[in-house]
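Subject: for your reference before the review

Hello V.,

The reviewers asked for a structural picture of the protein, and I figured it would be easier to keep everything in one thread rather than splitting it across files. Below is the amino acid sequence we used in the manuscript, unchanged from the supplementary table.
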Amino acid sequence: MLTEFGKVFIFLLVGIVFVGIAIFMAYLVRPKRPTAEKLLTYECGENPIGSSWQKFNIRFYVVALIFLIFDVEIVMLFPWALNYRDFGFYGFSVGAIFLIVLFIGMIYEWRKGDLEWERSKPIIPNLKNFSKPKEIQETK
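And here is what came back from the structure prediction:
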C-alpha cells in the first residue's frame, strides 16, 4: 500500500516526466531558422549597443513596478465584484473605498510624472553657474 508521501512523489515524478517529454517534442517540431536578429542577446526591442555593464534607463523598472502594483490590485477586485451584493452596503462601501484609494494612487503617480515615459532632464548645478557669496567676493 502506498503512503501519502509516495503518492506525492509519484505525482511529482509524473509531472517532471510529462514536462520533459513536452519540451523534447517541442524541440523536435520547432522550426530551425536562425537569423541574425534571433541570435541577439536580447529580443526586447532595444539594440544591444556598447558594454553590457552600461547604465540603462530606470524607467523600465519603474513602469514594471507600477504595472505590477496596479495589476495585482485590479485582480483583487474580481472576487469583490462577484460577491459585493452578498454583503450589502458594507461590501459596496469597502470596495468603493478600495477603488478611491487606487484612484488616488494613480493620480499621485501621474502627478509625480512616473507614468510619462520621457522626463525632462534635471538641471545639475556646476561651478560655472555658481556665484560666490558677497563676503568671499569682498575679501579679495
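For the response letter, the relevant points are probably these. The mean pLDDT is 80. Residues 52-118 form a domain with the Methane Monooxygenase Hydroxylase; Chain G, domain 1 fold (CATH 1.20.58.1610).

Happy to draft the paragraph if you're swamped.

O.
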